[in-house]
Amino acid sequence: MKTKKWLGLTLAFVFGVLVTMTGEDVAAQVQTMIGKKVTGEYTVVVNGEKLSDKGAIIDGRANVPVRALSESLGADIKVDGKTIMVTSEETPTNNQVVLLDGKYYTKYDLLNEQKKTSDLLVHLSSSLEKEESKTEYMSGQTGIVKQMWEDGLKTLREKVDQNTQRLNSINEALKAFE
Predict the structure, then answer these.
(1) In this structure, are residues 167 and 159 in contact, taking their beta carbons and an 8 Å threshold?
(2) I want to staple 105 with a disulfide (CB 3.0 to 4.6 A). Which of 28, 51, 86, 109 is the partner?
(3) Out of 31-45, 145-159, 162-176, which region has the weakest mean confidence (pLDDT)?
(4) What per-residue confidence (pLDDT) applies to 125?
(5) Residue 69 pLDDT > 80, yes or no?
(6) What is the C-alpha separation between 98 and 123, in angstroms, rounded?
(7) pLDDT of residue 14
(8) CA–CA separation, 26 vs 22, rounded Å?
C-alpha cells in the first residue's frame, strides 16, 4: 500500500513539474505582448474585400491575421513548430519578376545570378586557358593521359559555352526591368 502511495506522489510531482514548465513557456510568449501599446482594432481589406478577422497596430507595427490574409491571397499556410510558412503558387502578373529556365526571378535575384555566372565564367575561362597552354606538351603524350586531358578540355569548353549562354539569357531577362 505504501508503494502505491509513494508511486502516486512521485507521478503527481512529475506531472506538476511538467505543467509548471509548460505554463512558464506560454507565459513567456504572452509576456512579449504585455505592456505594448495597442492603438486599436482595424479592418483589413485585401483586393477590395474585408477580412472577417481584424488587424491591430501594436507599438506602431501593423499586425494582421496571417491565416486570413494568406487564404484571401490564395496562399497556403503551414505552421511548423514556431515557424509560420506562407507559400503561393500563383503566377505573377506584373513585371516585378521574369521567368527564366522555368523559375521566376526578381531583378535582385537576376543580378545575383548574373554575378555568380560571370564569376564562374571567369574561373572556367582561366582554367580553359591554362589547359590549352599545355597543348604542345600534351601532343607528345599518348594513351589514357592524352585522352583524359582531351576529355577534360572538351568538358571545360562545354561549360564555358553553357555559362556564356546562361549569362546571355540573364542579360536578356534583365532587359525586362529597364
Answers:
(1) no
(2) 109
(3) 31-45
(4) 94
(5) no
(6) 27
(7) 46
(8) 6
Mean pLDDT of the chain: 76
Q: Using CA atoms, how far apart are residues 163 and 127, in angstroms rounded to an integer?
A: 14
Report the distance separating Cα 25 and Cα 140, nearest Å.
74
Kindly state the average pLDDT of the residues 140-169.
93
| HSE of 55, CA atoms in CB hemisphere, 13 A | 18
Question: Cβ distance 173 to 98 under 8 Å?
Answer: yes
Q: φ and ψ at 104, to 5 degrees?
A: -85, 135
Stronger pLDDT, 60 or 18, i.e. the higher one: 60
End-to-end, the C-alpha distance of the chain in Å comes to 85
Cβ-count burial of 13 within 10 angstroms (0-12 exposed, 13-18 middle, 19+ buried)?
Answer: exposed
Q: What contacts 77, CB < 8 A, 6 or more positions away?
A: 66, 67, 70, 71, 84, 85, 86
3-class secondary-structure state, position 158: helix
DSSP string, 50-64: EEEEEEEEETTEEE-
pLDDT value of residue 19: 47
